[in-house]
Amino acid sequence: MHHRTMLLIAAMLALVDVAVPVNTSARQRAASPRRYEDLVTLFTAWRAFQRPKVVNGVPDYSPAAMATQHRELATYRRRLAAIDTTGWPTSAQVDYHIVRAEMNGLDFDHRVLRPWANNPAFYMTVFDAQSDQPAREGPHAGGAVELWSYTFPLSPGDAAQVSTGLRAIPGLLRQARSNLTGNGRDLWTLAAGDVRDQSTALADLETKLGSGAPTALLATVRHAKAATDSFSTWLASKISSKTGPSGIGVANYDWYLRNVHLLPFTWQDEVRLMERELARARSSLALTEQRNRDLPPFVPIASADEHSRRFATAIDDYMAFLRDRDILTVKPWMKPALQARVGRFSTGPREFFAEVDYRDPEVMRTHGYHWFDLARMASEPHASVIRRGPLLYNIFDSRTEGHATGWEEMMLNAGMFDARPRARELIYILLAQRAARALGDLRMHSNELTLEQAAEFASANTPRGWLRLDGRTVRGEQHLYLQQPAYGTSYVIGKIEVERLMSDRANALGDKFSIRDFMDAFDAVGLIPVTLVRWEMLGRVDDTIRRVVR
Hints:
Elements: H1 3-15, H2 26-31, H3 36-50, E1 54-55, E2 58-59, H4 63-82, H5 90-113, H6 115-118, E3 126-127, E4 145-146, H7 156-179, H8 185-209, H9 215-239, H10 250-259, H11 267-291, H12 304-324, H13 334-339, H14 352-357, H15 361-367, H16 369-379, H17 385-388, H18 397-413, H19 423-445, H20 451-460, H21 473-483, H22 487-509, H23 515-525, H24 530-538, H25 543-549
Parallel strand pairs: 3-4
Antiparallel strand pairs: 1-2
C-alpha cells in the first residue's frame, strides 16, 4: 500500500460517521477516539513505553521497575480498547490488531514468561551475526550491540555508538544477578552457551579494532568482556541449584497462540498438525528415494572454488526461474540480497543446514526469501508506520518463517527442481526436521520433555542423521524455542496457513488465479501475523480470522 493510499484512508476515517453500538451513551460516543490517526498516536506512545527505563545508561529490569511497567500497561490497553474502529477499512483494522497483539505480548511477559527473572540469556546483548528475521529471535534486553552492522575501522560516530552499548554491560549484568530468581533448569543450563558467544564476540571485536583504536574504546570492550566472563562464572555456580521445569504450560501456550501470535490453534491442535507433517515428510521421502534409487548419489561440495561456482549458479538459476516462470515481480535488490549471504566454504563436520546446502545450494535459496523480506523493508518501506519496522515479540514469525518454509515445497511443486530429482529428497528432509523440532517446542512447554530429550527427539526423527546430537544446531534451536514459545512451530504452522490462503484464492479465482499477482499482494501486506495477512488479502472476516480478532 502506497503512502498516498494511507493518507486517503486517514482522510476517510476522519470524515466517516461511525456507527456505535446502541448501548453506548452519547457522551461515550463523543469521547471515543475513532480516527486512524488516534491509533498511530497511541502506537508511537506505546512503543516508547514498552522499552525499559534507562537508569545511568543501563536498562532497568528490576522488580520495582517491572511492577511499575505492568501496572501502567493497563492504561495503554484501555486507551486501545477505547478506539472505535467501526467502519474502518480492513488495512486500518489490521493495524489495530497488530497493536493489540503487541500489548498482549508485554502482558504475557509480565504474567508468565518474565525473561528478566527466568532467562539468563535475556541479558546477552552483543551479536556479531545478523539475524535473517526483522528482529532478533527470542527475548533480549534493550540496548543490543549489533556488531555485524558496522564497517571496520569504525568511524568516530560508530565508535561512540558501540561504546555506549558496551558501557551498559557491566551494570546490566550486575543487575541480572539480583533480577534472576527463576528455577527453570534448562533455561539456566543452556544460557551458558549464549554467554560464551558474547565473550567470544567481544574478544573478536578487540582484535578487529586493533591496537590503534582509541584507548577508551578498547578499555570499554575489555570491561564488557570481563563482566561477561564474571557473569559466566556466577551462572555456572548457580546451575546446580536449579531444579524446576522451564516450560510455560499448555494453558499459557494456548493463550499466547491466540492472543499474541494471533493463530487460530491450540497446543493440542499444533501437536496433531506437527505429527501429521512429520509423517507426511518421512513417507514422502521414502517414496522419493524409491523413485530416485537408480540415480547417482549426491556429491557434496568439496572445495572453495566449487562452493563459489555452485552458489553463484544457484542464485542465477533461482532468480531466472522466478522471472521466467512469472512467479513474482523480481526487484533489482533481490539478487544482491541473496548474493550477500552465500557464506564461505568450510571443512569438518557439517551442521544440518550445511548438509543440505552442500548437496544442492539452490534448495536453501528458496528459504532465503527472508533476505527478500528484509531488503523490501529497507527498499520499499510500508506506508503504515505500524508495519514499517519489526513487530515486537517475534509475532511476525508465522509469516516470515512460515512462508520461507512453505516456499521450499511450493517451488518444488512449481517445477524448480525438475532437472534435479534428488532435490526433492532434501525438501522432505527439511520439512521433517522442522516438524520434529516443533514437537520438541510443544512438549518442552507442556513440560513433558526436557530440552535434552527434545533435542534427542528432533535428532532421531530427522532423516539421515544430519541433525547431529554432537552439533550446536539441535540444542541451540530448542533453547530458542524454550525462550520464545510458538517460534519452533511457526515454520510449519505458518506454512500451513500460507498454503491455505493460496488454496482459497486459487479456488475463488479459478482460471484467473495468478501466482505472480498472489505473491505481489502477499508481499505488499508486510511482515505481520499470517492470519492478518489472510484478512487483508481476503478483505473479509472468515471463521479463521474471527477466532483471533474477536
